[in-house]
Design brief:
Pfam families: Beta-lactamase. The relative contact order is 0.20. The protein has a six-stranded antiparallel sheet, sandwiched between helices. A three-stranded antiparallel sheet has the order 3-5-4, covered by helices on one side. Strand 9 and strand 10 form a beta hairpin. With about 270 residues, the chain is α+β, with helices and mostly antiparallel strands. Helix 1 packs antiparallel against helix 6. The protein is built from seven helices and eleven strands. The protein has one domain: Beta-lactamase (3-Layer(aba) Sandwich).
């Protein structure tokens, strides 16, 4: 009998996935323990760690941070005006969603100063250790530096499906659109109007084309990484999906990921 995760074969290269419901893992296939580069999925861990610092009163979203006129909110929501990989600016803060690794790294540096701790240590103590993410390798950039197995990423996805670390107001800040009207380029998918993001986390909204399924709710949030790792959480369907592949993000991901998402929703939504 075929299942939704059989669609992993459509990638044409190694792939694995985990389906998570509120009770835990519902289905899994492939090499779940292989350590994979998370690349931009790292931003979701950074966003979560920053939200915990906000919840604890160590920092504020309106803190000046980044280029003149920018705040911590702008940095985490890709609205500071920074270029992709440098401290040069493309425009003034708050005018457009311009995806920026440098901006996320700068947000982490701001929170690092605010908490008085190395940001990697903060992630370990406030996110990885409480969730049991024992294999998370946090090295280098807070925007793209994490490595880990899908089992560790599934723990994060499960947490975001049923939060224990964040109170409801901070979970909303993390996972709902910041500056929701902003237009921007969605890496790999072109111009989106609007192009919603939370705090280091992408929000699906009504983006088209997109890497999640047509059946995913607009409230769906998550991220994909250019080295082939991704996850989404759909709070309306009460489901999450974690995917890892051995190939950089390519046309196969653009074609298979939406079909996989819709198949998972059809099979596992209750």
């Amino acid at each position: 009998m075929s299942t939704a995760l059989d669609l992993l074969d459509g990638f044409g290269f190694e792939a694995a996935a985990i389906v998570i419901g509120p009770e835990g893992v519902r289905a899994a296939r492939g090499d779940l323990d292989l350590v994979r580069p998370w690349r931009s999925v790292t931003k979701t861990v950074t966003g979560t760690a920053c939200a915990i610092a906000l919840q604890e009163g160590c920092a504020d979203l309106e803190d000046p941070a980044g280029p003149p006129g920018s705040t911590l909110r702008h940095l985490l929501a890709h609205a500071s005006g920074y270029f992709y990989e440098s401290d040069s600016t493309l425009q003034a803060p708050g005018l457009r969603r311009h995806y920026s690794n440098f901006g996320i790294d700068e947000a982490a540096r701001h929170v690092e100063r605010a908490v008085g701790r190395d940001f990697g240590d903060w992630v370990q103590e406030r996110v990885a250790d409480p969730l049991g993410m024992t294999g998370l390798d946090w090295t280098g950039s807070a925007s793209v530096g994490a490595h880990g197995a899908l089992t560790d990423l599934a723990l994060l996805a499960g947490e975001l499906l049923r939060p224990t670390l964040l109170e409801a107001p901070w979970m909303r800040e993390l996972t709902t659109p910041q500056l929701p009207e902003l237009v921007g380029i969605m890496p790999g998918f072109g111009k989106q109007d609007p192009n919603p993001f939370g705090l280091g986390i992408e929000v699906r909204g009504h983006k088209s084309p997109h890497w999640t399924g047509s059946g995913n709710s607009p409230e769906t949030f998550g991220h994909f990484g250019m080295r082939g790792t991704a996850f989404w959480v759909d709070p309306v369907a009460d489901l999450a999906l974690v995917v890892g592949t051995s190939h950089d993000f390519c046309d196969a991901h653009r074609e298979v990921m939406p079909r996989l998402a819709d198949a998972v929703l059809a099979e596992h939504r209750r």
